Amino acid sequence: MKHLFIINPKAGKEKALQLIPEIEKEFKNTNEEFIIEVTERAGHATELVRKYVSRGNYRVYAVGGDGTLNEVLNGMVNSESCLGVIPSGSGNDFIRSLYKGKLPRNIIRDTINGDIKPIDLAKVDDRYFINISSIGIDAEVVNNAKSIKRFPFISGKIAYSLSAIITIFMYKYRDIQLTIDSKEINIKNTLLALANGRYYGGGMKVAPDADLQDGLFDICAIEKLSRAKMFILFPKLIKGEHNQIEEVTFYKGKKVTVNSEEEVTLNIDGEIVKRKNITFEIVSGGVRFIIP
Looking at the UniProt record for this protein, which Gene Ontology cellular component terms does it annotate, in alphabetical order (predicted)? Predict the structure, then answer.
């Protein structure tokens, strides 16, 4: 089997780059073929992976954060290659759903030698994601945190915390029409999360019961909250205790559509776009994933 490592040089304040010697060391006394590619721009990971998997089957490793994982995934969908993650970004939220605790001591070696299992994918319009997509205040928090994280002395967690405080005072509620399979719901949206994994936003446990192999979204819908309740919301999200808030409702479904008269901010595994009409679908067993 051939191994392809896609490295985001900016991930984790260049932590991903520092892993290259460790990766090379794992193959020093083997005859297995391995390739290391370092991305140069946004979207480059998708281009690189698409080029390689069109020529053959690889064990493809995303070395970076959740954004790197998303780009790598979108380059290999519908191929026979398999996907692994060597976390080295600031958030690394998806990997929390796999380990449910501490990472293995030697994450590189254990991932290279890991077993392959099918897990679900999700699709939003023409783009795939593997973890969580969301609309509302949390997407605004992610968007604002990206600007804050540009300061070299601010960690990912601090950036998210500062962004949350700023966004609470700036947030504008929007009316959205939500259709989950055949069920229609109208809400004045604070937060809507469509989850394949459990964690996002630097460790917030938005979907405590999400299962990567059940073929369903776990959907967290939060109606309009007062500013005071918003300050209560984020600590509870971190612990996965937001079900204690009256305005929070959970659903499950395979296909979800969202319609709004105004553009809403959409977070797709940490990448931000603006849309009015959005369709989400689960792709059951859509990717062969490497489990350390």
Answer: plasma membrane
